């Protein structure tokens, strides 16, 4: 199974809450079914797919193959269980289609049905089909949205995969009512309840709580008439009165807010009827819960698939890491390795253990990619053309294993190599960006931070180049402030200033010279934040921006060019 781009079937689809969660995790829906007419219309309006009807009447042979079966059962246990129940349709699909995994969602009352016997029988029947089964009650509140909604999630795998349900999202990363509720000035008066209802609810709430809580809050009125305020919504219910949840005891929840409480994006197309929306959202899955469970399932599958490869893969990665970490490793050699693996993905018959058959071509692949990503700075090597295949680099037998892994993971090994190649450049660019894109103003730029951040990148050559630029900008600043030269004369002297900067920073001697990093830091600290600030800061900032931009524009070309290949979205637990 390709965890980067998997397929799924969406049965008992409702309005697509499960589908949205699985699509966010990287999946593609190939089949859906739903019987409710309102849900079918809404599903079609948003996904361009008309769901099939009753899944119990669908021939499994007519359903396209898929990797994961997703089923969001209706709340009623009586509709799920029994000889002609919906669970039997799930069993039939699993038996005939044999997907890699499944994700089922039920109301938590299934756990207590017949004293727990129903759910145990259900898990037993799933296990009898050859699946490793796990179940747990998950609360939407724990996964980022302010709704206390508990659902029983059951997942299973065709292989004996170890699985743990996802940990709750840290509280500071969860959405609050302020993130969900629309600004009060934008809500129509028609959503506000009558004074009679408001006063009755407020009186019942104060009897219970003594005082009004901090706004915003939502009150929930249960079947016994008890009114309780919370800083989250209680579980949305399809059949409840429109007034069972009130914002600040004053108004009903709007249609868009109902969708937000289930984690739906604001781009989701809503029906026009409030009652219809209340029923549909009340029956829907919470998107973040499905996404969190799906992500955990994919990670477990990835880990299992990786472990089955065994020690051969571990050895290949160890040698690859040693190759990538080699001091002074040339970017062109790393690019050649990545491009060989990439070509293997598109030409499966390429045999990477027979280097002689593609040595010459691999240089062309390398030069084409390097010229695109490195630009003018790339010059094809005159010697060492085959050094990639030496024993201390990446011999063909190691490339073979890496190629198999790369094909299995849809490019994760390529992504791993390129991320390692560009890691230093990305950090270097993050330090330079305020100077190369100086729209934010001088207040956002700090020469000391630039100097102190460079050693952490492990880029000695770039650090020396930055010191040279800073020394040259310092000289230009003094010349301008002292009025020795006009702009044209300074431009004529730029080459002379650069040679002087190289001398002062010890380029030819191979040491730090007179203008060490600490020396430059003190100079610029005095100019940017010290007694020379008013007279020199603006000039020094201008020259430093101009000189850094002239020297380093284009350093981001490599990793920005790679972004078009989509490596950021390639996932595999082993090749992080």
Features:
22 helices; 10% strand; Rossmann fold; DNA Methylase, Chain A, domain 2; 4 domains; six-stranded mixed sheet; 576 residues; alpha/beta
Would you mind describing this structure in some detail?
This protein is an alpha/beta fold and 576 residues long. It has four domains: 7-173 and 287-298, Vaccinia Virus protein VP39 (Rossmann fold, 3-Layer(aba) Sandwich); 177-282, DNA Methylase, Chain A, domain 2 (Alpha-Beta Complex); 310-408, no CATH class; 428-557, no CATH class. Helices cover 48% and strands 10% of the residues. It has helices at 17-24, 37-47, 77-80, 86-97, 117-128, 177-180, 195-209, 255-261, 274-282, 287-309, 311-325, 331-346, 359-374, 396-408, 412-436, 447-457, 460-481, 487-492, 494-504, 517-529, 533-552, 557-562, and strands spanning 7-11, 28-32, 68-72, 101-107, 132-139, 147-148, 150-157, 218-221, 227-230, 233-234, 245-247, 251-252. It has a six-stranded mixed β-sheet, sandwiched between helices. A hairpin with a 3-residue loop joins β11 and β12. α11 crosses α14, α12 packs across α14 (396-408) and α17 (460-481) crosses α19. It starts with 6 loop residues before the first strand and ends in a 14-residue tail after the last helix. The mean pLDDT is 86.
Which stretches of 5+ consecutive residues score pLDDT under 50? none
> How large a portion of the residues is in β-strands, by DSSP E?
5-15%
The CATH C-level name of the largest domain is Alpha Beta
Give the % helix: 40-55%
Shape: flat
Counting DSSP E segments of at least 2 residues, the number of strands comes to 12
